[in-house]
Amino acid sequence: MNFHTASTNYLNHLRIERALATNTIESYQRDLGKFALFLIAGNEDFSHLSPTHIEAFEVFLKDTKMSGSSINRCISALKGFYRYCALEYEISNPMTGSTTLKTPRRLPKALSISEITSLIESAKREGDPISLRDIAILEILYSTGARVSEVIGINFADVATQDLEGERISVVKLRGKGSKERIVPLGKFAFVALDDYLVRTRPLLAAKNAKSESALFLNSRGKRLSRQSAWQIVLDAAVATGLEGKVSPHVFRHSYATHLLDGGADIRVVQELLGHSSVTTTQIYTLITIDKVRESYSSAHPRAK
């Protein structure tokens, strides 16, 4: 058994048996690729390694100027790989004593409401029907806190309007990590933007593809919009508003969570809306709001300083 075969089998295990998302599998593949380079450089057999070799691999990664969090991700991927190999091939696991590096806790960056508004407004291009699609994507990113992969994964049938205690609300089904599904409400601004896109733009794009496409958001060829294209929409909006370098699709998610908590939303509700399996992950956003409280107190209270 060589490393290439074992790693390929492991990735197939993640894809088929554990049904992990494509992006997650690609991340594992990149990390295992770095380990393959380490093995080649040292002419090592992956099935006969010791904890000392893993320490050497960490040094190897540090020499490539990788960040601590990226190194931790590689080690985590390797732990999963060797657990699999220990069960499938009875290979000794050199990862049993491996620990992750301590990294400084980084708070997610949230934009202000005015910055979010400017980003969305910047996508408006008079006379360009494609701009209606771009606006709808930006509105949904902020209205739902969805990951970009979840937005492009929305199908036409995933958007619905429901009656709730006499009030009609719009909701969208999102497919998150591990193929877990959740239903989140769609705000009024997002619904209006989406309706404009569905009425005026999507039929034009769908007509360019002979096959019926279930995707909600289509590209210029009438096929499902790619992750890269959705990223570019966000980056173009960032450039147009002078926020280049500060904005990614995930910033909309951070801002969504922060603004909900600032507005008084219960953290458990925010956890459900974000699709976090643990509230601990959601709690990082409370640190941002606490910082704002501390800042306001320091500047306003006469005996704070």
TrEMBL record:
Its biological purpose: Site-specific tyrosine recombinase, which acts by catalyzing the cutting and rejoining of the recombining DNA molecules. The XerC-XerD complex is essential to convert dimers of the bacterial chromosome into monomers to permit their segregation at cell division. It also contributes to the segregational stability of plasmids.
PROSITE patterns found in the cross-reference section: CB (PS51900), TYR_RECOMBINASE (PS51898)
NCBIfam families tied to this protein: PRK00283.1
Domain Core-binding (CB): 1-86
One Pfam assignment: Phage_integrase
Chief subcellular location: cytoplasm
Subunit structure: Forms a cyclic heterotetrameric complex composed of two molecules of XerC and two molecules of XerD.
Location of this chain's protein in the cell: Cytoplasm
Annotated catalytic residues: 147, 177, 250, 253, 276, 285
PANTHER family: PHAGE INTEGRASE-RELATED, TYROSINE RECOMBINASE XERC
CDD domains: INT_XerDC_C
Gene (name only): xerC
Keywords per UniProt: Cell cycle, Cell division, Chromosome partition, Cytoplasm, DNA integration, DNA recombination, DNA-binding
Protein family according to the UniProt entry: Belongs to the 'phage' integrase family. XerC subfamily.
Record protein name field: Tyrosine recombinase XerC
Domain annotation Tyr recombinase: ranges: 106-298
Listed SUPFAM superfamilies: DNA breaking-rejoining enzymes, lambda integrase-like, N-terminal domain
